[in-house]
Amino acid sequence: MNRLEIENLGISFGGIKAVDSVSFSAAAGEVTSIIGPNGAGKTTLFNLISGVYAADTGHVRIEGADVTGEPPHRLARRGMARTFQNLQIFPQMTALDNVMTGCHLRETSNLLADLLGLPSSLRETAKSRGLALSALERVGLANLAARPASELSYGQLKRLEIARALVTGCSILLLDEPAAGCNAVETREVDDLIHAIADEGVCVVLIEHDMRMVMRISSHIVVLDQGSKIAEGKPEEIRDNERVIAAYLGAHGAAEARAAHA
Amino acid sequence: MNPTLKALLITLALVVAGALIFPSSYYFRVGSLIWINTISVTGIVVLLGYVGLVSLGHAGFFAIGAYAVAVLPGYGVPSGAALFVGAAAAGLLAMVIGRPILRLSGYYLAIATLGLGMLIWMVLTKESWLTGGPDGMVVAGFNPRHWFALVGIKMKSTEAWYWLTGLVATIGVVLAVNLGNSPWGRALRAVHDSDVAASSLGVDVARAKVVAFAISAVYAAVAGSLLALANGYITPDTAGFMHSVEMVTMAVLGGATTVYGAIVGSLILTALPQVLTFVAEYEHIVLGGVMVATMVAMRRGLVPALGDLAHRLAMRGRSK
Amino acid sequence: MSELLQFVLSGVTVGAIYAAVALGFTLIYNASGVVNFAQGEFVVIGGMTAAALIALGVPVIIAAPLAVIAGTLVGIALYRLAIKPAGKAPLVSLVIITIGASIFLRGVMQVVFDKQIHRYEGFSGDDALRFLGATLLPQSLWIIGGSFVVFAALAWFIGHTHAGRGIRATASNRFAAVLVGINTGRAMNLSFALSAGIGALAGVLATPVTFTSYDAGVLMALKGFSATMLGGVGSPAGALVGGFAIGLIEAMTAGYISSDYKDAAAFIVILLVLFVMPQGLFGRRTTERV
Ligand SMILES: Nc1ncnc2c1ncn2[C@@H]1O[C@H](COP(=O)(O)OP(=O)(O)O)[C@@H](O)[C@H]1O
Ligand SMILES: [Mg+2]
Asked: Structural domain of residue A243, as residue ranges?
C-alpha cells in the first residue's frame, strides 16, 4: 500500500477535461514528479488531490483510507501539506508569522486562553516560534524572519511556502514548481532540501519544469498532456519514451527554438 | 514592548487624559460615547481587520445588547446580568446565523448581513408590545456612581459612566490584542490573506469565520448594553443600517487592521457630529465627504498611514 | 380573486421600479465590479428634481427630462470624483465610498430641497382605472411600460451600437477590452451615466405612486439589491425578473400576512436564496482559480 494513491481522478471546466481520469501512486520517502507542458493539468491535479477543487470522478487515498471529497483542512490533519504555483502567501504578516501559521494543527490552546492571554496560549506561541525559526533556517530565510512577507523576492517566497508547509509536520508534501524564480544556486539548494525531506520519510509529489532537477531527484515520474497521463516510470524510462519526447520535450524544444529566433 | 502591555498602557493613558482635560459633564458624556463606540468598533476590527469580512448588520447585535438591558429588568433580571444575557444571545445568534451566512463572501456577505440587521431592526420597530416600537423605551436606572462610591471614590454620574466605559473599552482592546498575537489570531489573519493557504495548513476556515463573527457580535452587544444604560433610553435606530455603516466606517477610517484604528476612528466620528452641531444641516454632507475622501486618499486608514509616515521619517533620519 | 389581482397589480408596479434600480446596479457592476450603494439616491434625485420643478410651475414634459439629466450628471460625477480616483481599491473601501457618496447626496438633497415628502400628479391624472374588480392608477401603467421600454432600449443599445458593444466588452473582460483598443474609460463613464439615468427615470415615473423624500433612497437601494441578488449579480435579465419577483412577494406579504413585515419579506427571500444558491437564480457558477 502506497502512502498516496490516486485513481481515475478527473475534473472538467466548461466541458473541457482539465484532468482526465489520472491514476498514479506515490510512496513514502520518495520524490514522485508530475511533468508535462503548460496547461497539461498539473496544478489542477494538485488542487484535486488537496481538496481545493471537488473532483468529478475518481478517488484519493491516504494510507489506504478513501479521503475523496474531504476539505483541505481535514486533509491537512491527515498529514497533507502543499505549496502553490501562484503564491498563496500571507502578505500582511511577517515571514515568521507566515511560518508560525503552519503550526496551527500543533497548537492546543483554546479561544478563551488566547483572548485572555493565559500562559497556556503564550506557551503555544513560544513553541510555534521556535519551530518556525528552525524551519526558516532550513530553507535559508532565518535572517528575514522579521520582515513583512510582502518585501520578500519571488524565489524567497517560494521557499517561505516550503517552510510553512514543513512545520505542519506533514507526511505528504505537494510542491508546485518550488524552484520557479530561483537562480542556479538557489535551485540547487531547493533540490538538496527536497532530497532531505524525502529522506526523512515524507512522500513528496513535485511539479517542476527544470528537467535536470526532475531527472536528478525523482524516483518516479508521471507525465501529463492535455489532462491525461501519457507515460509513467523511472527517470531513465521517461527520458527515452517516444511519446513524452513528442508531446512534451518536443513542444518544449520547439518553443525554445522559436524563442531563440525571436 | 509586549503588545498586550502596550495596548493596556496606551488605552488607559487615553482614558485618564480625557478625564484630566474634560471641562464639563458634556465632555464626559461625549467621552463615554467614544469609548462605547471603541468597544463595538474593536469587534469590527476583529471581524474586518483580522479576518477580512465586511458586515453591514452589526448594529443588529448592538441592539440586542441594548434591548436586553432595557427589556429584561422588567422581568426581574438585574441590569448587570442582562448585559451578559444580551452578549450571550448576540454571540449565539451570530454562531447560528453565521454558519450559512459566512459561506458567502464579498458583496454577498455584505448584503446578507445587511438583511440580517434590517430584520432585527424591523422586529424591534414592529413588536411594540415588547420594545415600545419606533419610539423606543426607557431603560431602568443603573448608576455606576454607586460602584465607585463603594470603593470610596465620589464622582458625578457622567464621570462614573466615563470611567466605566473607558475601563470596559480598555479590556476590550487588550483582549483583541491578545487574540491577534495568539494561535487563533494567526489563523484568523491567515484567512484574511489567503483562505486557500489557511485551509491547506489545517485551519477550518468556516469555523474561524464563525468564531470571529461571534466575537464581534459580543463586542457589539456589550457596547449596546452600555449605551442603553448610560442614556437611560433606547430606540430601534440603534439597529439601523446607518449605525452599522457608522461602525464599519469608524474602523476603516482609523485603520481596520489595528485596535488603535478603532480608537482613533471612534474618536473622530463621534466627535465630528458634536463639533458640527452648529451646521447640523450639513452633517450628512460632511460625513459622506469624509468617508469618500479618506477611502480615496488613505485606503488603509489613519493609524497605518501615520505609522508609515513615522517609519519613513525614521528611515530618513537614520540615513543622514 | 379580485383581491389577488389587486395585489398582483400593486406588486408589478413596485416590481417595475425595483427592476429599474436592479438594472442600474447591474450596469455599474458589470462595467466596474462595484456594487453601488448610492443607486437609490439616483431614484430620489429624479423624483425630487421633478417634484421641485413641477412645483415651480414647469410642465411635466420638460421637468421629467430635466430630472433625468440631473440624475445622469450626478452618476457621471460619482464615477469621476469617487470611483475612478479609488482605482483598484479593496471591496470594503468601495463599499464605504459608495455608501459615503449616498450619505453625501442625501445631505445635498436635504439642503437643496427639503425634508418633506413629495409627490406630483400622475402623467395621466390620478383617477383610478377599474379592471376586473381591481383598481389601478394610470401612473402604474407608465411605470410598468417605462421599465419595459428602458429594458428594450438598453438591450438594443448594448447589442447594436458601437458604444454599447464597448460596454459589453468591458464588462466581460476589462483587460482584454483594453488590449483590443476599446476605450474602457468611456465605457465606464457611459455605464454610470446610463445607470444613473435609468434610476432617475424610475424616480420620475414612480413618485406619483410611491412618493419620495430626501432619505427614501436607502430602502430603494436595498430592495434593488435584493432584486439583483435574487436574479444573480451581473445578469440584466435576472435584474428584471428579480425586480418583479421582489415586488410581487412584497405585495403578497402585505396583502396576506402583515403589512408591517412587507419590507422583511424581501430580505428573508434574499437570505434564503443566498443560502441555497449563492450565485442567485441567473448567476454563473464558477470554480475559483488557485
Ligand atoms: N478554476 C478553473 N476554472 C476554469 N479552468 C481552469 C481552472 N483551473 C484550471 N483550469 C484550466 O485547466 C487547464 C489546466 O491548467 P493547469 O492545471 O494550471 O495546468 P498546468 O499546471 O499543467 O500548467 C487549463 O486549460 C486551465 O485553463
Ligand atoms: Mg501549473
From this structure: 1-79+171-262
